[in-house]
Amino acid sequence: MAGAATRRLKKAARIILVGAPGVGKGTQTERLISRYPQLASISSGDLLRENIRKKTDIGLKVQSTLLAGQLVPDATILDLISSELTSKGWLEPSSKRTTSAPSTKTSLNSSASFILDGFPRTAVQASSLEALVPINLVVHLHTPPAIILSRISSRWVHPGSGRVYNTEFNAPKVPGKDDITGEPLVQRDDDSTEVWEQRFKKFEETSKPLLDHYEGKGCVWRVEGNTSDDISPKLFAEIERRFC
User: Fold this and answer.
1) What is the pTM of this model?
2) Which residue from 8, 66, 113, 163 has the least number of CB within 10 angstroms?
């Protein structure tokens, strides 16, 4: 997929990718951003980590919440996303917006195009998001679970750089060693069969109501493939049809 020509969006694209853990959401996001430079990825996880690192008011609140073993409230995530959209000039700030929750009295720039990563994960979160960001494409990525499990069990990582290898289709030059440094590769704890099955069960529980919510709004599009390379051309074609 490298070297694909860039394309210009003629309509704003506000996208969510939904798919089982390991299906390749990150890969598709990278490819979409590379092909359509108007798109940006807004990751709720990255925003949380950045605010914690900078010790902002929200970051300190989030850190104490996480240290207490609790989930970050939806209102906090929405406030982070709202602040990010505002900083990019995509969301007109409201004088009534507070730090505790984003105001619904905001106006989204008609040209704002982005992929939301990590939020919403539930139908309740999706409902809360609507007043802030009207999503117009929910991509349901589907790869058979057995294939995903086989793929992630063959995945090895270089801890120092994050470089990822797969013994089936992107094997290191020397088995068990990083191509660049020669240092040992490891398997991540969350790539174990047991952990993946737990994450998949949780995904199934939350994704059906989420997809049903967006189905009701007519913006869900389902794409199937055994690999990211199977899925990407279909995804590009749909983006072209809808937004170019």
Assistant:
1) 0.83
2) 8
